[in-house]
Amino acid sequence: MWRIRMHGRGGQGIKTASQILGSAGFYSGFQAQDFPLYGAERRGAPVIAFTRISKDAILERGPISSPDIILIGDETLLNDPQSAPLCGAEPTTIIFVNSNHRPKELSQKFEVITANLTDLCLQRLNGRTIYSSALSAVGARLLGTIELEDLLQAVEDELPGVSSQMLKGNLDLAREVFEMVQPVAIPQRVEKALTAKPLVFPQHLPVVDGAPIILDPGNMALRKTGNWRVERPEIDYDHCNKCLICYARCPDGVISLAPDGRPEIDYDHCKGCLICAQECPGHFIKTVRETGIFP
Amino acid sequence: MTTSTNVHKKIKDLHPNEAIAPGTGLCAGCGGLEGLRLGLKELGDDFLICNAAGCFTLLSVYPFTPLKGSWLYTTMGGSVPAAQGVRDALDIRMRYRGLEKKEDLNVIVVAGDGSSNDIGFGATSAAIHRGLDFIYFCYDNEAYGNTGFQLSAASPYGSATQTTPSTDVHEAGTEINKKNLFEIWKAQKPAYLATVSPREPIDLSNKFARAKELKGPRMFICMSPCPTGWGFEPKEMQEIAKLAVDTGIFPVKEYFEGEVVHTVRPRKRLPAEKFLERQKRFHHLFEPHRQDEVIGQIQKRVDDYWRQYE
Description:
The complex is a heterodimer of chains A (295) and B (310). By secondary structure, chain A is of the alpha/beta class. Chain A has helices at residues 14-27, 103-106, 117-124, 132-143, 148-158, 164-180, 207-210, 245-249, 275-279, and strands spanning 2-9, 31-37, 46-54, 69-72, 94-98, 112-115, 231-235, 255-257, 263-265, 285-289. Chain A folds into two domains: 2-180, 3-Layer(aba) Sandwich (Pyruvate-ferredoxin Oxidoreductase, domain 3), CATH 3.40.920; 223-289, Alpha-Beta Plaits (2-Layer Sandwich), CATH 3.30.70. In chain A, 27% of the residues lie in helices and 18% in strands. In chain A, the strands form three sheets. Chain A has a six-stranded mixed sheet. In chain A, strands 7-10 form a two-stranded antiparallel ribbon. A two-stranded antiparallel sheet of chain A has the order 8-9. Chain A is globular. The mean pLDDT of chain A is 90. Chain B has a single domain, classed as Thiamin diphosphate (ThDP)-binding fold, Pyr/PP domains (Rossmann fold). Helix content of chain B is 33%, strand content 15%. Chain B has ten helices and eight strands. In chain B, a hairpin with a 2-residue loop joins strand 7 and strand 8 (259-264). In chain B, helix 1 packs across helix 6 (201-212). The two termini of chain B are 17 Å apart. Chains A and B meet through helix 8 and helix 9 of A and helix 1 and helix 8 of B.
């Protein structure tokens, strides 16, 4: 059995990637299982998805803690403690990162394979960064046991309702990535026998302990959402006329006013929705692609 | 609306207070969050929000809260009863237990369209009937967004949701019309009732400034474009909100002392199509073939609505 774990952000098509890979495996004659795992957060927040592909019946359930392949769609997640994409990796684990960086720059500890899927997606998908077909194509090719035509069939099946132009873009993208990546040898593991866990009996606590109470107003700011960004808005202060449209339109309220009346963006929290850049009447806010690893 | 009560005239008049700290798990480009942010700017920090389960559950994720005021989390149907309880407790403590007047709080219910139109609807009607002194903020993204965008009573005709996709049998997607929550609430004559759009911050702030001075049930319905569920890029949120107003699909109005006034009127209404074609949930109306009948129906409803006021 091959266990594949995918990491990315909500809205990047990570869940769909696991579905495409699962279906592609199924069409190539294997048994497959795929499912996502995310918290209550939405678009931009870390997402994990899993695919199991096997010649025999898959009896294992639940999240994959020691994967054979890890596919990371967003390199900014590498150091994210909440997502922890390298958790459970062993020296033999195949790790793929969508990045423009050289593998050594990304991890000292692990051998990493990289390719720049973002630029390909931007090109093929009309300026969007949705990695569902690209990332599943990487997975399918790394396994080496899935046929291209099965992958393309899976892409078509798992993307219902997209426009014909978008579907063509996705199919071209899957084909291109499939031909770009080389299969790898995945070491066979000795499967451990499944054992039953002892029953756990829940303890009853008094209401004071049971009901969560927060006594520190506004402490949400301790959570940095700045690493959600794909692109960063930058204000051109030479031209900014302090009209404050950006300040009024920012849903997260991360644009504040400096004492001299200039709007200032809080990059620790800016989620990169880019409404400010879109709404600036003079187009004095430019957008710059975020690269590298968020500290 | 009489202009003398409009305290805000331009963007620079917006209250500088930010009652919501950044860092919430809500989607980038959330229209509802923008509406609530602008509203709370006006109301100040002395509030207690009774939050119905929904997208805004994510406002506070234990052990974090973005609010400078208090927040009480409730079930979908329980937010208004909770507000009644909190209001009563405050009143009793002020009357008999020496709680000072300055310690009083604005009791606010924050609920989504699912909670407002379906699950919490009965309790809300009862609270308006009793004249409960509270502010109700409904962020209307026209479906159950938090669970993956399923049909609610606020989903508009012709839109696709997870439970009403466009199929061979049901080509239009959603085949029933959106519930007219404004008219339903209006029938009970609350102290104040208004629809607001995040794209109209000045209008929104003026409405909250007015509501703040009143007593009794004060109801808000906020058009909340949802990048995730409606299917558009987060950066387009404000444009979509603007199109909703400019096409006349979302009338920005208020009800006060028995009269309905449109506070932002589109000068020349754009065709409804302009709003529809930008969103994935209406995509099936244009591709693979154009569903002229459905688009015509949507346009007719908009025209019929505005004819009453022209």
